[in-house]
Design goal:
Length: 497
């Protein structure tokens, strides 16, 4: 599983955190399934954009990258991201992989020297045709003027790959999810493919081409290769196919062309297997605009964590927006969802279960009944969650998970065990509620890992959620009963909006 590697010209923002959290939750879900997942993220440190940012900061590009890259690593550790590797494109292992991939494409005859002149957006690190530009020669993404560049470049002969790419996608239906984003990629390929330049002479901040050191590799060729670098590609001592091909490239909709057109063509040329899948997310918009340093509407995820906590923030980005579509970020939306789903639903369920067990069952959890009325809701929640994660639809997976929370709260409200005398009836209801909460805890762990771990401990369960394996861990009857159940501090104190 991979995220895009983030440009270090900006500090981590909500848009970066969004993709990284989706990848983390998917990674965790697959680990619960017993899959051996390697989750990769990192930073994109070469190219003109970074050179300019370093110049503006009055420092060298390397010093600049060394200052910003750790901020991404820190942000991910504060957001409880379980990445296994963090790749920086300034690392030697990455240089080796880029040189290897370039050389293979060159030897295949797919990289050739040519002269290029065109209009270039530095923020995108991309050339645009006149038809693609907005009135006044403005970049369609950044809405700011493009530059005119003319230089001798090496070109990757992408135009030769149209049929091969279309054939490959036809043979691998569903490789790109959601489907409408896959159709966008196919539309780009059918619309005709232009060769793209893979080198620059006007810039020195990059990786020199192995056969012509006057040129450095184009930043997108360089950046895409990170996914291979982290598998050991380019190191003759390592078998990179242990980790390649990747199962999921998580990307934003703005980089479909690079990932779903350029990248597979580069791999075909080099004789490397293609990715098994891509999952394309939309943008989180702030006031209807994509969040970007150049737009000035950047939201720092770490500020939001101060209000709703790490899990509150993770839950919000996963649950609020259907992955693939654009979502609108608002502070009010964040607080509303926190109060409704976390404070009033999950937090409330955990608290009331522990309170009633303490008051009516002597603090020791009764075992669930095999024929509990909640067993069916639990099975449906698991089926829905599994389907949601499987389709890279976290909002659906969480909706299914929360349906079990709601069913359990409703079950408690209809039986009102807090009003009843201690005895077998209360024990039966509370055993069921404890078991439902245990299953919720497993299913919610990918989204809210610290909270799930806390509830797991309060239920008196041994081991940790990370050690559980699905589907067994979601099968009704796993709570053994007889454990000391503790209440602890409120998990999600209500926020006054
Ligand atoms: N460095 C390139 C990616 C190279 S991958 C081989 C890049 N970096 S980026 O930092 O600008 O963006 C990385 C990803 O973050 C993109 O997929 C982009 O869509 C995503 N996001 C950036 N802002 C975003 C939002 N406001 N909302 C959601 N995702 C957004 O592109």
């Amino acid at each position: 599983m991979t995220t895009p590697i983030y440009y270090v010209n900006a500090e981590p923002h909500l848009g970066h955190a969004y993709t990284t959290i989706v990848g983390d939750a998917l990674t965790r879900w697959h680990r619960l399934l017993g899959d051996d997942v390697m989750y990769l993220t990192g930073t994109d440190e070469h190219g003109l954009k970074i050179r300019q940012a370093a110049d503006a900061a009055g420092t060298t590009p390397q010093a600049f990258c060394d200052m910003i890259a750790p901020k991404f690593a820190d942000a991910w550790s504060r957001l409880n991201i379980a990445n296994d590797d963090f790749i920086r494109t300034t690392e030697p292992r990455h240089h080796a992989a880029v040189r290897e991939l370039l050389q293979r494409c060159y030897d295949a005859g797919d990289i050739e020297l040519d002269t290029y002149s065109g209009k270039y957006c530095v923020a995108c690190e991309e050339y645009f045709t006149d038809e693609e530009l907005l009135d006044g020669d403005l970049c369609p993404i950044h809405k700011r003027p493009v530059d005119h560049f003319e230089e001798e470049n090496y070109f990757f002969r992408l135009s030769r790959f149209q049929d091969r790419l279309l054939d490959w996608y036809a043979a691998h239906p569903g490789a790109i999810v959601p489907e409408f984003r896959g159709n966008e990629a196919l539309g780009l390929i059918r619309g005709g493919l232009r060769d793209f330049s893979v080198s620059r002479t006007s810039l020195d901040w990059g990786i020199p081409l192995p056969w012509d050191e006057r040129h450095v590799a184009y930043v997108w060729f360089d950046a895409l290769t990170n996914y291979l670098s982290a598998t050991g590609f380019g190191d003759p001592k390592v078998d990179y196919t242990t980790r390649w091909p990747v199962d999921y490239h998580l990307i934003g909709k703005d980089i479909i062309r690079h990932h779903c057109v350029y990248w597979p063509a580069m791999l075909m040329s080099a004789g490397v297997d293609l990715p098994k899948g891509w999952a394309v997310g939309g943008w989180l918009l702030v006031d209807g605009e994509k969040m970007a340093k150049s737009t000035g509407n950047v939201v720092n995820p770490l500020d939001l964590v101060n209000t709703v906590g790490v899990d509150g923030f993770r839950y919000y980005v996963l649950a609020e927006t259907a992955y693939g579509s654009d979502g609108d970020f608002s502070y009010d939306g964040l607080v509303t969802r926190y109060n409704a789903d976390l404070a009033n639903n999950l937090g409330n369920l955990a608290a009331r279960v522990a309170t009633v067990v303490e008051k009516k069952c002597g603090g020791i959890g009764p075992a669930p009944r095999a024929d509990s009325p909640l067993a069916e809701a639990a099975a449906a929640a698991y089926a829905g969650a599994a389907a949601g994660w499987d389709h890279v639809a976290p909002s659906k997976a969480l909706e299914a998970t929360w349906s079990l929370i709601r069913a359990t709260n409703a079950y408690l409200e209809s039986h009102e065990p807090w009003k009843a005398e201690p005895g077998p009836d209360v024990d039966a209801v509370m055993g069921d509620a404890l078991e439902a909460l245990r299953i919720v805890t497993v299913l919610a762990w990918p989204a809210v890992p610290a909270t799930a771990d806390a509830i797991w401990g309060r239920l008196g369960m041994s081991g940790s959620v990370a050690d559980q394996r699905l589907p067994l861990a979601a099968t009704w009857g796993g709570y053994p009963g007889g454990t000391a159940v503790t209440k602890g501090d409120p998990l999600f104190p209500r926020i006054r909006s």
